[in-house]
């Protein structure tokens, strides 16, 4: 598995925690920034990562900002992305099993590093169940293809 990860200024510390987790799990990743504590615009980081996941260059992506909201909204504008904003382990598991999410967003100002690591671990190790959920995800994809061509 190959992961693309990025944050804005509000997610720097949590991004480092998640990178450390992926190192411990021997998961390959590429860090797309940011590298500053001054204010930056989250779409400048979310959109390129989402495009890399949508193109298949990366299997999944992880985005972190202050709340995770801006990153998830931005990522979900890219065709083929199912980015889930998650702040608990139950949702992390469910969004992989039921929604086949290919991107995870979290908020550094919402959760601490221990919980964020556990959320990421669960999300990274949970597979899509398929079955009845495949039909639901396919409906989203069909609509997206109709609207965005």
Automatic annotation (TrEMBL):
- GO MF term set: ribose-5-phosphate isomerase activity
Asked if the Swiss-Prot or TrEMBL record annotates the protein with the keyword Isomerase, the reply is yes
Q: Which EC number(s) does the record attach to this protein? A: 5.3.1.6
GO biological process, any: carbohydrate metabolic process
Q: What class of enzyme is it?
A: isomerase
**Which key words are in the record?**
Isomerase
Q: Which Pfam families match?
A: LacAB_rpiB
UniProt binding sites for D-ribulose 5-phosphate: 8-9, 66-70, 99, 109, 132, 136
In this protein, the active site sits at 65, 98
Entry similarity comment: Belongs to the LacAB/RpiB family.
Q: What is this protein called?
A: Ribose 5-phosphate isomerase B
The scientific name of the source species is Metabacillus idriensis
Please state the gene responsible for encoding this protein: rpiB
